[in-house]
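Please fill in the sequence for the structure shown.

STRUCTURE ENCODING:
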């Protein structure tokens, strides 16, 4: 493939790099931008097959989406790809008020004048934390146990968008007036001799949105064949679709099976480095265990006093303290791990909320306020210290820190954990250009039996 095949917008930063990985590991040149590129920006890169944009719509209100997504979709459509893809998290966490996937679908339907929008959420390729959809219900695996999403130990109590409904037709139906159909497992699997083509043609004539079930790699490939054949039937403008990274893997699986691309199955882990910088804003249990592991394996922890960051009188001093401490650790040859909390029950979280209340900072603004401060801290460390490799832990954290680093684009280097690759940074600032970076979602972990994510980023171990 040499013409632009796919253009995607990811609703958060960590989710943007898992799609980058899915396409890049199939030999497709994939470039991830922080802003929608025009043709002039693309001209700096040769033979690009896939273009991505790392967005932040998962934290937006519907009104904020209305103000931004139409232009983003139009700009991506102007690049003339075969498929425009709104990429969402594989846990589908969203609500009518924040990160509404339904509103994104409504906007996409209008911009691309599409009749029915396929939605592919199942992502078995993310094993051992696979995502599966059966009869419209979403399941996710944690520590070897698979839970329905409304019983998932983390997602059911997500601080912003808790998943209290696993039936995606119901969950999505609360976010849009569009009619929603589902191609169920028995049809995707070919059971009872039901034709997926016939079922999809019927559903897209009768429904505005068509969800696909799937629990294994063959189901992925089957769904990919349906999506790609539908793409090839559109001539006037790109097809619009919505999905997790599972949609990317579905397309790649189909292309590999049909010989369109060669899958790069042998992937070398990144080379080890002496030290890295970790900035962790995630307080998920998974990230907490990874911080604990790192503190016992050569990383130097630096806790950020988040309540102090909210106070105008103390914010600058707190930033300076953290930057100086991290710089000292780097100068000593070790790896600083800057973190805001230790798990969802950390008392610092409640103290920070109470401070925000006293300062009249809305709960909805707290994440962006702290994320912006972490961006300033990380930029200060990069400016003052010798940082060649960075790991950002947390979707919101990544979304605020990356712009603070003035990153223009990213390209794939190698695997760290499923969905969180090491990437090469393209930036105008020479202190940032050529750095290597990993965006880690709160739930992302390696395939190892121990929570060694930050160690793998530093040591380049083959733990994929």
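FILLED IN BY: designer on duty
SEQUENCE:
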């Amino acid at each position: 493939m040499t013409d632009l095949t796919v253009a995607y917008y990811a609703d958060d930063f960590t989710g943007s790099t898992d799609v980058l990985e899915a396409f890049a590991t199939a030999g497709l040149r994939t470039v991830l931008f922080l802003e929608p590129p025009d043709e002039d920006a693309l001209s700096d890169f040769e033979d690009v097959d896939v273009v991505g944009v790392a967005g932040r719509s998962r934290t937006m209100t519907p009104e904020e989406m209305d103000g931004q997504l139409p232009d983003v979709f139009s700009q991506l459509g102007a690049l003339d790809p075969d498929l425009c893809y709104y990429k969402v998290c594989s846990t589908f966490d969203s609500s009518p008020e924040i990160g509404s996937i339904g509103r994104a679908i409504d906007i996409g339907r209008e911009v691309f004048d599409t009749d029915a929008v396929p939605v592919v959420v199942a992502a078995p390729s993310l094993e051992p934390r696979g995502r599966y959809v059966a009869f419209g219900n979403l399941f996710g695996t944690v520590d070897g146990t698979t839970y329905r999403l409304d019983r998932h130990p983390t997602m059911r109590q997500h601080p912003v968008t808790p998943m209290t409904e696993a039936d995606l037709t119901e969950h999505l139906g609360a976010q849009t007036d569009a009619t929603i159909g589902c191609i169920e497992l028995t049809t995707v699997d070919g059971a009872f001799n039901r034709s997926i083509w016939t079922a999809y043609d019927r559903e897209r004539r009768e429904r505005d949105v068509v969800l696909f079930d799937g629990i294994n790699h063959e189901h992925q490939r089957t769904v990919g064949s349906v999506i790609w054949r539908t793409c090839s039937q559109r001539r006037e403008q790109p097809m619009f679709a919505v999905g997790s990274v599972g949609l990317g893997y579905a397309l790649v699986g189909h292309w590999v099976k049909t010989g369109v691309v060669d899958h790069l199955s042998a992937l070398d882990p990144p080379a080890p480095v002496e030290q890295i910088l970790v900035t962790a804003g995630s307080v998920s249990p998974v990230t907490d265990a990874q911080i604990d592991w790192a503190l016992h394996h050569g990383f130097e922890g630096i806790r950020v006093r988040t309540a102090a960051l909210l106070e105008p009188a103390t914010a600058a001093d707190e930033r300076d303290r953290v930057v100086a401490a991290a710089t000292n650790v780097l100068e000593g040859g070790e790896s600083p791990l800057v973190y805001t909390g230790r798990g969802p029950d950390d008392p610092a979280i409640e103290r920070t909320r109470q401070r925000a209340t006293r300062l009249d900072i809305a709960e909805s603004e707290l994440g962006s306020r702290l994320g912006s401060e972490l961006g300033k801290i990380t930029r200060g460390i990069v400016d003052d210290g010798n940082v060649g490799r960075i790991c950002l832990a947390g979707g919101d954290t990544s979304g605020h820190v990356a712009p603070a680093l003035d990153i223009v684009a990213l390209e794939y280097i190698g695997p760290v954990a499923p969905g969180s690759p090491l990437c090469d940074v393209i930036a105008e600032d020479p202190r940032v250009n050529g750095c290597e970076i990993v965006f880690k979602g709160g739930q992302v972990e390696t395939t190892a039996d121990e929570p060694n994510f930050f160690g793998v980023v530093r040591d380049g171990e083959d733990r994929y």
